[in-house]
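subagent[fold] <- orchestrator: predict structure for attached chain, return tokens only, no commentary.
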Amino acid sequence: MDMRSRISDALKSAMKSKEAARLSTLRLISAAIKDRDIALRGEGRDEGVGEGDILAILGKMVKQRQESARAYEEGGRLELAERELSEITVIGEFLPRQLSADEAEAAVARAIADAGASSIRDMGKVMGLLKGKYTGQMDFGSVGPMVKDRLG
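subagent[fold] -> orchestrator:
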């Protein structure tokens, strides 16, 4: 089952079972995907958002909520931080399992070997391979410095 169908089914299920918080998060996911569809149509790409794009959207949503939760905790707004964390849980249901640190290291080493990368100038090739294969499974903000260290 593709990602859009899974999200749509989850949305319908949340409506039927009257899970307000879950329904709200699922609607946010659906709206983000539709926004991206509209943006792509504006660029002349009629096929819309693919699976990889949906994973990227979900990953971005998780990262935004982690930052918000951290800010709310620092500001003493624990109820708002809790709501952000519960949204992360719902979004996470649609993301593949995150790679462990060791698995990420191995994936970086494989990507460097596959790209034939030898210097920092090849970093774009390596990151492109990683994003193509591991979107939604690793945090590219932390992987970038790892790649840079190995190539630098």
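orchestrator: received. Logging for downstream: The CA atoms of residues 26 and 111 lie 34 Å apart. Residues 3-92 form a domain with the Hypothetical Protein Yqey; Chain: A; domain1 fold (CATH 1.10.1510.10).
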